[in-house]
Design a protein that fits this description.
The structure holds two protein chains of two kinds. By secondary structure, chain A is mostly helical. Helix content of chain A is 78%, strand content 1%. A two-stranded parallel ribbon of chain A has the order 1-2. Chain B has two domains: 154 residues, D-Maltodextrin-Binding Protein, domain 2; 138 residues, Periplasmic binding protein-like II (D-Maltodextrin-Binding Protein, domain 2). Classes of the chains: A mainly alpha, B alpha/beta.
């Protein structure tokens, strides 16, 4: 029954995608092909980097392993368009790499300058490098649960090959699911392709809405995107549903020799380069050095940051508020939806899960348009004219992530514990919520990160006087890499990192409570 | 139930950023001029008058067009008071559709008549010119392009660019060409296609590509050209149509208008008066956008000729030509 339903849903989605594509013009079909190219490349790149990273940090022991594992969160905390700005700064026609290699030819576009950076592969690779920690973290979590007994038995039976087969079997479902999520995110990404001059279908949706005022056309253009992202997310759910190998004591990490450790660390740093190290270096240099030859150093950095604070502090405050509200409301909604989901069985559960996750597949401009269409009425004016419109649009996009996280977390808690809590005269939530609190905290942080850096829906939904930092930053990017842009990037990174100490404190408190 | 009620109250509070109930003096501005240049002016207005300014900025992807569509979609429930457009054709179109209210600002008395709507529904000030930005390392001094026809020269096949002519000043420029002579405009666009002219994301993109040498030259605005000049890139600015037989360069003034049914009409008129004052033109001319003041007595950027000849334009005809121009661009020029 379940398989039949899933098959029917997949067939319906493919029909919708096919119908949408058939009705679209050739240019839109080409844009969809580019979107698919960007999504597929991002997913493949994230899969390769993420699996490699996960095997290094989860299965081996060497000096600096913990630091490398912690740094893996860095690319996720760096907004992809900040990485894209630094990417152009490094590889663009006037970038430092073409100049260093003598490939910057003012009389014509060189292969490196014109052909590489502003292209579908460049866009896909960059997004893959920014999102690979999703795959890395998922695969590492699966690898850490591989039992010692299973590994030893495989080694005895088939040698090192057998061991690798077990590890692969443990990591593949999680990594595959995360790669499909990366595919979905890259497919509807809007700001990075715009900065890298790649015309993708998500941008065409935005233009149909904002420039042409043709919501019908926008909807038509969204159909293939919606279908592809929904299929990918459905695939991700199916991958995640495969039971992990988690019976028994986890296998210990293997020590690495010096040479191998150095090679592993170098590989990890290379993987982190486009999504974390290059943006950080580029930003630092731009804050520190005056390209016009003026005074540099800490005085300049302080001056640039003060200017950025003056220009964007109000936007930053609104970004933080909107992000925190979206994450909190999303989490409440997530628990409220996931709670009945864990009791449901069969097709109802599949339908409810699909309905909860569907908005996650919405292209960003469509989320913005839906918000405007739903709230532009007299009786919803307070929401439409205030920050509520923005929170609504962001929630529409990212609350499903909280639903998914809450569902996966609740799924791991046996239902018997609920009964036990009732028998003890306690509300089941008091027994279950502390167990899933770390996952909920992580979901809150994930939704917050996505919300404060979101551009596509925010550009449409932010009401007058309520502009946010991400939109300000992407719009200013067309002035090129100046001090102002670097200051705004630094401000946005500050906004992104702001809740980390609080979340860290929360995790420490939870651990302390658990020990107590 | 109690929790649901509390949640509803919380949601309502979300919609009220100030949280206060007393009526505040505020004005909502939809601003198509880049935030970098407009924000200091609006902040100064707020400081001097005590009126809170709530701006909504355009996005780089859609420029003016996005705000215009927002104004149209909110026509039933107007929330914008003042529309500060960074060009003119869309203001004329909005006025024609009855979305703008007439207002004769005392600050506009010394502005030229061509920059003012006969029915006073919009007023122009501080303009940008449409110019050809040339990379001096890619184009020899004796081969400088001087007119739009140079974009059709096979010598520059695939080496020159324009912004996507669906948005912003490039859309207005194409509409202007259509208003002048639709057949000639279509021939020119077809020629661009044949000469593989690069269609860039926007005027700033044109500037970046010319400055980096990726393109030999491109059609852009004076504000973007000024950024390249300030960055000391190897570029030169050519004002087309300035020769003895030329008809002049297309100047696109900013326009400001009060919306019909604006929720704060008094504050809106106050802001319009402020924006049309000579001080704002002077500030925009001195800013990095190097806008060209319409009052001849005010100074302009040193690289902009003092005797710059502006092309005569019938703005009503340009606004009327916008839909046909967009349609042709979408159907023929951008067709793959």
């Amino acid at each position: 029954m379940k398989r039949a339903l899933a098959g029917a849903a997949a067939a319906a989605l493919l029909c919708a995608a096919g119908g949408g594509l058939w009705a679209l013009e050739a240019e839109d079909r080409a844009a969809f092909a580019r979107s698919l190219g960007v999504g597929a490349l991002a997913a493949l790149c994230a899969l390769a980097l993420g699996l490699g990273y996960a095997f290094v940090v989860a299965r081996h022991r060497f000096l600096g392993r913990g630091l490398l594992a912690a740094l893996a969160v860095g690319p996720l905390a760096t907004p992809p368009y900040v990485a894209a700005i630094a990417w152009v700064d490094a590889l663009g026609p006037a970038g430092w790499l073409p100049r260093l290699c003598g490939l910057s030819d003012p009389r014509g576009p060189s292969l490196l300058a014109g052909g590489l950076v502003y292209s579908v592969p460049s866009c896909g690779l960059l997004l893959g490098c920014c999102l690979f920690p999703l795959v890395g973290l998922a695969a590492a979590a699966a690898l850490l649960r591989v039992p010692r007994g299973a590994l030893e038995a495989a080694r005895l039976a088939r040698g090192p090959l057998g061991e690798h087969a077990v590890l692969w079997a443990a990591a593949a479902p999680a990594a595959g699911a995360a790669a499909l999520v990366v595919f979905s995110l890259a497919l509807v990404e809007f700001a990075v392709p715009q900065l890298l001059r790649v015309g993708v279908l998500a941008e065409s949706v935005y233009l149909a809405l904002a420039a042409d005022d043709r919501p019908g056309l926008a909807l038509l253009r969204s159909l293939p995107l919606l279908s592809a992202t929904t299929l990918a997310l459905g695939g991700a759910l199916l991958c995640w549903r495969r039971p992990p190998l988690n019976a028994g004591e986890p296998a210990p990490r293997r020590p690495l020799g010096r040479r191998h450790a150095a090679a592993a660390a170098l590989g990890c740093l290379l993987a982190l380069a486009p999504g974390l190290l290059n943006p950080a270096t580029s930003l630092g240099l731009r804050l520190w050095i005056d390209p016009a030859g003026g005074a540099g150093g800490p005085a300049r950095a302080a001056h640039v940051l003060a200017s950025a604070w003056e220009a964007g502090s109000a936007d930053a405050a609104r970004s933080v508020t909107a992000g925190a509200l979206t994450a909190s409301c999303g989490l409440l909604l997530g628990v409220a939806v996931a709670w009945p989901l864990r009791r449901l069985r069969g097709p109802q559960r599949l339908l409810l899960a699909a309905a909860s996750l569907l908005p996650f597949a919405l292209p960003a401009p469509l989320a913005g348009l839906s918000t405007l269409a739903l709230l532009n009425h007299e009786w919803t004016a307070p929401l439409y004219d205030g920050l509520g419109a923005l929170v609504f649009a962001l929630g529409l996009r990212f609350a499903p992530l909280a639903v998914l996280a809450a569902w996966l977390a609740l799924h791991r808690v046996p239902l018997e514990q609920e009964e036990a809590a009732r028998l003890c005269g306690r509300h089941p939530a008091r027994a279950i919520l502390p167990q899933i609190a770390p996952a909920l905290l992580a979901a809150w942080l994930g939704v917050y990160l996505l919300a404060v850096t979101e551009y596509g829906a925010s550009a449409l939904a932010a009401p007058p006087g309520q502009s946010v930092l991400s939109v300000f930053l992407v719009n200013e990017a067309h002035y090129g890499q100046g001090a102002e842009l670097s200051g705004l990037c630094a401000l946005l990174l500050g906004v992104v990192l702001l809740p980390l100490p609080a979340v860290g404190a929360g995790v420490a408190w939870l651990r302390w409570r658990r020990r107590a | 139930m109690r929790r649901a009620a509390l949640f509803a109250v919380f949601l309502l509070l979300l919609g009220c950023p100030g949280g206060g109930t007393s009526p505040r003096r505020q004005v909502v501005v939809y601003c198509a001029l880049d935030r970098l240049f407009a924000q200091p002016i609006l902040e100064r207005f707020a400081r001097e008058t005590g009126i809170e300014v709530l701006p909504k900025w355009d996005t780089e992807a859609t420029k003016t067009t996005g705000l215009v569509q927002a104004l149209r979609s909110e026509a039933e429930r107007v929330r914008c008071d003042v529309f500060w457009n960074n060009e003119i054709a869309h203001s004329v179109a909005l006025a024609r559709d009855g979305l703008l209210a007439p207002y004769e600002s005392p600050s506009a008395e010394d502005l030229p008549a061509w920059a003012r709507d006969p029915e006073r529904r919009w007023t122009g000030f501080a303009a940008r010119a449409r110019v050809i930005l040339v990379n001096t390392e890619a184009v020899p001094a004796d081969a400088l392009p001087t007119s739009l026809d140079d974009f059709l020269d096979p010598r520059w096949k695939g080496r020159c660019g324009i912004a996507k002519p669906l948005f912003g000043t490039t859309a207005t420029h194409v509409a202007y060409l259509f208003a002048k002579n639709a057949e000639a405009a279509k021939r020119w666009l077809a020629g661009l296609r044949a000469n593989e002219v690069v269609v860039c994301a926007g005027n700033a993109d044109v500037k970046d590509r010319v400055a980096s040498g990726e393109l030999a030259f491109g059609l852009t605005d004076t504000d973007d050209a000024n950024l390249a000049l300030r960055a000391k890139r190897p570029v030169r600015v050519v004002f087309p149509g300035q020769g003895p037989d030329g008809e002049g360069t297309l100047l696109l003034p900013n326009t400001v208008a009060v919306l019909r049914g604006a929720p704060h009409p008094a504050e809106a008129r106050r802001l319009v008066d402020y924006l049309l004052a000579p001080e704002v033109e002077r500030a925009l001319a001195a800013s990095r956008s190097a806008q060209i003041p319409l009052r001849p007595s005010l100074p302009r950027a040193p690289w902009i000729p003092s005797d710059l000849r502006a092309a005569p334009v019938d703005w009503q005809a340009v606004a009327a030509a916008l839909p046909a121009a967009r349609d042709f661009v979408r159907r023929e020029f951008l067709r793959r």
